[in-house]
Structure formats: structure tokens, C-alpha cells
């Protein structure tokens, strides 16, 4: 197993409900280390770029609107197999299908407002981290 970094977003439903600390506690309990973290207001252009891969999907407009509806917390998480591990900790995209104990099962109300994002591959983790962090802002 290798130490990896993955990119995470605590979405506007998390900042709105003041549960970012509760979500971070689950992340840390799972053995992932928060080595970069910043609270930002995502611009429409940033959200459109970040979710470019979904731009033909029917929910794209709704997704961009939601992600810019309030502050988000962007993070870099580090740990053994961090990419797969974080996806396990987040649970299925649709909270109704997420396993017990996962972030989405515990906190999320819908597939759109599903509290967290995590990179789905090493390649995307690298691209996503680079969109929001400079190397000097990540301290492992
Ligand atoms: P995320 O992992 O951030 O990547 C794409 C996002 O699109 C996903 O989480 C969901 O929040 C969102 N999404 C996926 N399916 C739907 C849907 N049917 N309606 C609204 N949003 C969706």
C-alpha cells in the first residue's frame, strides 16, 4: 500500500448546517490526515471547470448552482490508499444507497446535496488538487 493524496470538498450543505467539524472528525477517525484545508466561495467559473466532465448531464446546471450557493471547504487528504479509502468513508453518491457509518449515510439529504466530494482516481486527484492548492499550502 502506498501513501496517497486525494482532493476533498465539504459542500455548501455542510457549511450551511455547521457540520464541517463533525465531517472532519469522521475523516480523521478513518485514518486520513487533513494536510491542506481552505474555506472558499467557489465562483461559477471554478465550479464549471471543476465539474466539466459532467457538463452534458441534465443535472449540471443544478450542480453548479448548488456548489456556488455558499462556502465550501476544499481539502487535501493524505493516507494509505487515500483515494479509495476516502471514497469508502464518503459512501455511495446517493445517500439512500450509502452504507451505515459513512459520511453520506450519516449526514446527507439527497444525491445533489451529498455533503462531500472525493477524487475518483489518482489522475483526477492530481488535477483537482492543482485547481485549488499550491504545493506550499499543503503541509504533510
Ligand atoms: P460529486 O462526487 O461531487 O461529483 C458529481 C456530483 O454530481 C455528485 O457528487 C453529485 O453531488 C452530483 N449528482 C450526481 N447525480 C445527480 C443527480 N441525479 N442530481 C443532482 N446531482 C447529482
From TrEMBL:
One of its GO terms (biological process) is GTP biosynthetic process. One of its GO terms (molecular function) is nucleoside diphosphate kinase activity. Its cofactor is Mg(2+). CDD domains: NDPk_I. ATP binds at residues 11, 59, 87, 93, 104, 114. The active site is at 117 (pros-phosphohistidine intermediate). InterPro entries: NDK-like_dom, NDK-like_dom_sf, Nucleoside_diP_kinase. It is found in: Cytoplasm. Gene3D superfamilies: Nucleoside diphosphate kinase-like domain (3.30.70.141). Keywords: ATP-binding, Cytoplasm, Kinase, Magnesium, Metal-binding, Nucleotide metabolism, Nucleotide-binding, Phosphoprotein, Transferase. Belongs to the NDK family. Homotetramer. HAMAP family: NDP_kinase (MF_00451). This is Nucleoside diphosphate kinase. The lineage of its organism: Bacteria, Pseudomonadati, Pseudomonadota, Alphaproteobacteria, Hyphomicrobiales.
